[in-house]
Every structure is written in C-alpha cells, then in structure tokens.
C-alpha cells in the first residue's frame, strides 16, 4: 500500500510499498507442475512509495520460551515411540505458531508452498478455479472464477468444502486443502459440500482456468449501455478495460454497467489504477492502517495511476462473491465517485498481507495492515452494503445435479426436491416436495421431449446436464440485479 505523501498529525506513520499483497487463494495449477495451488495476487511496485513495513517491536524469544520449545522438541526426538523427522517438527512448530494468531490470511510457507506463492495469473493454469479460505477450521469458498469448472459445477460463495476425494479438510490451511484438490487437466476431483443445511457432493473435472479477466458487450435492448464484466484483477486487466471501454464507445455506448459479481480480487496495483479511472486527482481511493499507526490515505493521481477516465453514467454490480481488491474498487466508486452499487453485500476482506523471506526455502505471509474505505470504514467480515439491495431469484442457489446419479419414480430425497425445484424454475410445474411421484415423471418426460432427449422420465446423464444448462439460460434471462442497473441508467424505474 502506498505512501501518498500527506503527513498524519497524530500517531506513527510508516510507508508501505505497493508491492504488498491483496491475497486471493485460487485453486489453480500450472501445466508444468500439474498441481493445484493457492494463487496470490502480487502487485508491482509503483513510483513514490515508502518502504516495506518492518514493525515496531524488536523483542526476541526470551529464555523461558526458548527452553519450553527446546524441551518439547528434544523430548519428542528422544522418547516418541516411532522415528521423528527433525525438519517436520520444526516445520510444524512454525506453522503452529502462525496458526495460533487465528488469522486465516497469515501463513508460514515452506519450500513447496513458497513456490506456489510465486505462481501468478499471467499464464494459463489448470485446476477447478475457486477462491478459498480457511475460516474457523473450515475450508470456505469465497468465489468461483467465472467460466471455471468450479462455477460450472455450481459452487457458490460461502460453500464449505468438507472433503476432497474422501479426505477430510477440517482444520487444514488453505494451502494444505489446495494440495488435496490439485490435479491435472482432465482429471476428476469429488468434493463434499455443505451449503446451509444441505450436504451434497460434486464431481469436478479439472481444466485450464481462463485468464481473460475482461469481457464486454452492448446491451441488446439498450445499445447505448456498454456492459463490462471483470472476473478478477490480473496483470492485463487495466489495459483490457481501457480497450473494452474504448471499443464500446465507438459502438455507441454512452453509459456503462460494470459487473464485479463473483470477482475474488487479485492485484492491488490494478485495483488502484481501475479506481483512478473514475476519480479526479486528489480523491481518496482507499486508506491503510498499520499497527499502532494512524490511517494513511492513497489518493487518485493521473500521473501515478494513468490518465484514462470514465465519466459516463455508471453502475457497479457486486455480490457476496466480490472480495478483496474488487471491494477496494467498489468502495472507491461508491464513496468517492457516488457511483451506485447494485446487488448484495460484498464478501468482507479488509486486511492487507505481505511476505517476509525467512530462509532460502521459506517465507512468512502475514497480515500487516487493515485497509479502509475512503470514508474510513473497515469492511472486514462485514462487507460493503450496496445502494440498491437486489437478490437474484431463489432458484439461483439451487444445487447442481449429479449427472452420474439417477433419479426416478419412487425416490424420496433432498436431491429429488432440488430436481423438482429446477423443473419449476424452467417452466415445468411440479410439487417440489422431494417425492419423485407420477407428476414429476410426467414433467421430466415433457422436458425430455421438448429438448430432443430420450423420454424415460428419469433424470440422469444428458437429462441432468440439459436441466442445468436450461436453468443457466433462465437465470441469464432473469438477472434481476442487472435489470436494476439498466433501470438506473435509463431512468425507467
């Protein structure tokens, strides 16, 4: 986070390079290593910034603490009934020490995890494509990446991943969980998921994670509205937004909808540059607050962050999957440019991490500051409240159908209830009571006939896939959040 040059009258102030990190844990892997990694969004150092936080305490481990640690270490080596790996003991002690602070974003990284940390989103990756975090001993989905296998499989923000291929993830760090979820493109992983009071499994085929972070088009009914979808913040995102907006302007766009839904964040420098597009010089983009220090303001600057501007009427879409760097932009637009936010309250990631090298083979990823909105609000674990609260239809949270399972007459289960709810959502009315009765068979058969499928009345295989695809189409046609954004821009409320 940057030092903007303005002195604080009270409290200490330390500068922080913009090479500190806003972290996103994304289940991806490089094709060369064929693993699944926690991707960390690393920003580049920008001009006129201070030094990395060094902290204020210089205390060393006192003798009593050192004796206690040494006593446990030596006792384990001498007396444990089986052989003990000395390096594993040290690694475990270091991981446990960091884990004791209870911060899901701080972590000790050994050689392998440190290598994973250096993987960026500037190349293609393979995996399932979901941002995860370790929270309260559970592995929680922050957001699936748009177009990823995780999104296609129906994973949603706040889903809890209980196990991967039968291996329990409870109590693991995010990186440890990633190691169990990783695998090559084309391979399958079976995840057990808890969503509210539902428990179900999803089979996900790993694939290449799309790196294109910006997509755009004109609204079909209102071609004066340009729509820009931003799925994450990677190295080319700022330039891609410039290109998208420039092209949309040539096509006649005079207003814009920016879609940050399910955007898990990414590179801090991109968030600052994108925020700067909408703000005038001197307007506050964000604030950072380090330990025992007063907040430090980072302000818009065309000379530092680029002079491309978007002055047309704009609405920003966000939801509970909008996290980290996307929340920085959302807060900047809402509070410093009065651009309305539409959707639902964002995820709530309000801390800043940096990485300290410990040895040649290890690093410490540590939360070193809070980030605050331009008005000084800390959104951590609360999120950003939108200006227009608009929920998607209830069927947007329906569980993906397991195409390998078979649902037929006489079956009674929550999965059957989910299938029936999906049928209702796409226009085939049936009582969603979880009992696969004759009316369910009739509606399934009608759906199959309408879509050129074998009319068996059984939901499995191609019928399952077709139901899910039809639901996606219905959701796209009934995007209540996007419709509200269009209303605001056209004045047709």
From TrEMBL:
It holds the Pfam family PG_binding_1. Coiled coil: none annotated. Gene3D superfamilies: 2-enoyl-CoA Hydratase, Chain A, domain 1 (3.90.226.10), 2.30.42.10, 3.30.750.44, PGBD-like superfamily/PGBD (1.10.101.10). GO terms for biological process: proteolysis; signal transduction. One of its GO terms (cellular component) is outer membrane-bounded periplasmic space. Signal peptide: none annotated. One of its GO terms (molecular function) is endopeptidase activity. Residues 118-182 form the PDZ domain. The chain crosses the membrane at residues 20-40. This is Carboxyl-terminal processing protease. InterPro entries: ClpP/crotonase-like_dom_sf, CtpA/B_N, PDZ, PDZ_6, PDZ_sf, Peptidase_S41A, Peptidoglycan-bd-like, PGBD-like_sf. PANTHER family: CARBOXY-TERMINAL PROCESSING PROTEASE CTPA, TAIL-SPECIFIC PROTEASE. The lineage of its organism: Bacteria, Bacillati, Bacillota, Bacilli, Lactobacillales. Keywords: Hydrolase, Membrane, Protease, Serine protease, Transmembrane, Transmembrane helix. CDD domains: cpPDZ_CPP-like, Peptidase_S41_CPP. It comes from the Bacteria. Belongs to the peptidase S41A family.
